[in-house]
Amino acid sequence: MEDDEWEPPKILLAVDLVILTLRETRLQVLLVKRGIEPYLGAYALPGGFLFDEHEDIEAAARRELSEEAGLADVHLEELGVYGEPGRDPRGRVVSVAYLAIAPSLPEPIAGTDAADACWMSVEDLLSGRVGLAFDHHRIIGDGIERARVKLEHTALATAFCGETFTISDLQQVYEAVWGVRLDPRNFYRKVKGARGFIIPVGSLQRPENGRPARLFKAGPVRVLHPPMARSTSVPPEAQVTREGGVRS
Amino acid sequence: MEDDEWEPPKILLAVDLVILTLRETRLQVLLVKRGIEPYLGAYALPGGFLFDEHEDIEAAARRELSEEAGLADVHLEELGVYGEPGRDPRGRVVSVAYLAIAPSLPEPIAGTDAADACWMSVEDLLSGRVGLAFDHHRIIGDGIERARVKLEHTALATAFCGETFTISDLQQVYEAVWGVRLDPRNFYRKVKGARGFIIPVGSLQRPENGRPARLFKAGPVRVLHPPMARSTSVPPEAQVTREGGVRS
DNA sequence: GGGCCTTCCTGTCGATCTGACAAAAAGCTA
DNA sequence: TAGCTTTTTGTCAGATCGACAGGAAGGCCC
Fold first, then answer.
1. Is the pLDDT of residue A247 over 50?
2. Which CA-bearing residue is nearest the C1' of D28?
3. B92 vs chain A: nearest CA distance in angstroms?
4. DSSP assignment, residue B132?
5. Range(s) for CATH 3.90.79.10 in chain B?
6. If pLDDT is split at 50, 70 and 90, which confidence band does A5 have?
7. Minimum Cα–Cα distance from A232: chain B residue
8. Positions of the region Disordered (chains A, B) (predicted)?
9. CATH of domain B12-151
10. What is the pLDDT confidence band of residue A237, given thresholds at 50, 70 and 90?
C-alpha cells in the first residue's frame, strides 16, 4: 500500500441475465443473437454494460430485463461474478450475472428491441453442444444449478407460475427444473404440508381433461419447512428424457 | 445500443473478505483498522482494489487473504457484489465480497502487514452497534447468513476445524455459527449418519477432561444427506447467550 | 484401589416425514 | 351410463428426529 503513484485499475462492468421460464413443460432460457463483434451471430445471454457511472448494478439488470425481454416484476437475484481476464477478447470485462425467473405468460417475448431473441431448451443447451458466446454456457449451468437448489428449500417455484396455479402446474415446474418425474400423490401431500408455501384461492381451474383442480396462490413463506427434498429414487419411468409423453 | 459515441463507464473494482473462525467457542470475524481516508480509524473488512487490469478477482481475494491475514489454503467462496452508487464517498466503487473460513489455528494472526488486524466476536458485532466502514456491516451479516445456511446442507463446518477433529469440535462449530445449543447425543448420531461427511482416523484425542474422543477427518462429500436440519426447538438452556458457561 | 467427576458413545421410544401404492371424487366424451 | 382423465384423500412400512437413559472410558482426589 505505497502512497506513491500507484492507481487502481478501472474496469468495464457488465450484467448478464439468465432468464428461465417454463414453456410446454420444458425449462427454457432466453438467448439473443449477437449483432456485433465479438462472437457476431452467436447466441448469448441478454445483457450489456452499465449505462453510466451512476447506474446501480441491479437497476442495470432490470433495465436489460425490460429492454431485451419485455419483462418487469419478475423474480431477480444475483447469481455471481464472472471476471476472469481473457473472457472477453476486447479486454478486461467483469460481468455480474443475474438469475431471473419468468412465469409462462400468454405472449412469449414482447417488446424485445432485438428481434433475435429466442427461447432455447435447457436440455438441448446442456447436452448437445450449442456454442454460446463468452463463458455464457457456464453461467447458464450455474444458474440452473442455483434454481435446482433453491427449489428444494425456498418457494422459488411459484415464480415460474402466474398469479394463481394448480398443484399440477407446480409439479411441472419441479419436474422440468430437476429433470425427474415425481409421484403426483406424494407431491400433493408434500406441497400442502409445507407451511405457508401455497394458499388456496376459492376457485377451480378449467379442466381440459380430468377432474377440475383447486387454484392456489403463492404464500408468504420464502423458506420451506419441511423442505421439498429432492429424493434419490424416482418412479419407474426414471428420468424425464424429452417430450411430456412418457407413454411407457 | 447506438453505435454513436457512447462509451460504457469504467469502474473501480475491489474485493472485501469476510473471514470467519472459531476462537474459544465464539464465532469471530477479522477486521482491520483503516489507515487512510475515508473512514480513517474505523474498523473495516480486509480487502482492497484489484492490483492491475489483469489480476483475477478471486486471485486478488487470495492475495488479500495472505497479505492481511497470513492465511492460505482456506475455504474461500464468493459472497456477492456490493456496488450501490454512493457506498464509497470517493466515487463509484464496486466490491466483490468473499467468504473465507479459517480453522482455529495455534497462531492467531501471523504475517499481517497491517498490525491493526483483530478478531471481533460476531455476537458483539451484530447486536451492539460497532460502527464499521462502508456497508461492511451488511456484508458481514450476509456472510454469516451464508455460513448458517451452508452448515445445514454442506460439509462447510469441517473448514472451521483443523486436519483432524472430534465430533465435539464439530458441534462447537454448529453451536457458535447457529447461536444455539445442541444435544450432544443427537448431534453425534446425526453427524455419523450423514454419509461421507466425516471419516474416522484411528486415533483418539488427549482428553483434557473426560473420556477420550475419536478423531475424524473431513470426508469427500460436499452435500450432506441427510442434511443437518436446524431444528426449531432447542434444549432447555435455549439460545446460547455468552460464555461457554451455561451453568444453569 | 475406590469414589466421583467429566465427557464420549450407544441405544430406546414416540412423533414426524417419506416413498410406494390403493382408491374415491369430479369432470369430460361417447 | 360406461369409460377416460386428472385431482384429491388415504394407508402403510421405513427412515429420521428430538428427548432422554445409561454404559464406557478416561482423570482426580483420597
1. no
2. B209
3. 7
4. B
5. 12-151
6. confident
7. B225
8. 226-248
9. 3.90.79.10
10. very low
Which helix (H) or strand (E) segment is B215 a member of? strand B213-218
Q: Is B44 on the interface with A (CB under 8 A)?
A: no
Residue A186: which nucleotide is closest by CA–C1'?
Answer: C19
Tell me the fold of B154-248.
Arc Repressor Mutant, subunit A (1.10.10)
Residue B122 has pLDDT above 80, yes or no: yes
Whether B56 and A84 lie within 8 Å, measured CB to CB: yes
Q: Domain A12-145: give its CATH architecture.
A: Alpha-Beta Complex (3.90)
Q: Which residues pair with B29 in a beta bridge?
A: B20, B120
Interatomic CA distance for residues B146 and B141, integer angstroms: 9
The nucleotides of chain D lying under 7 Å from a protein CB are 4-11, 15-27
**Ranges in chain A annotated CATH 3.90.79.10:** 12-145
Complex ipTM value:
0.90
pLDDT bracket for residue B242 (50, 70, 90): very low
Which residues belong to CATH 1.10.10.10 in chain A?
154-248
Q: Which residues in A15-51 are b (16+ Cβ under 10 Å) and which e?
A: bbbbbbbbeeebbbbbbbbbeeeebeebbbbbbbbbe
| Among the partner residues B9, B56, B78, nearest to A85 by beta-carbon distance | B56
A209 CB below 7 A from strand D atoms: yes
3-state secondary structure of A129: coil
User: Which amino acid residue lies closest to nucleotide C22, measuring CA to C1'?
Assistant: A185
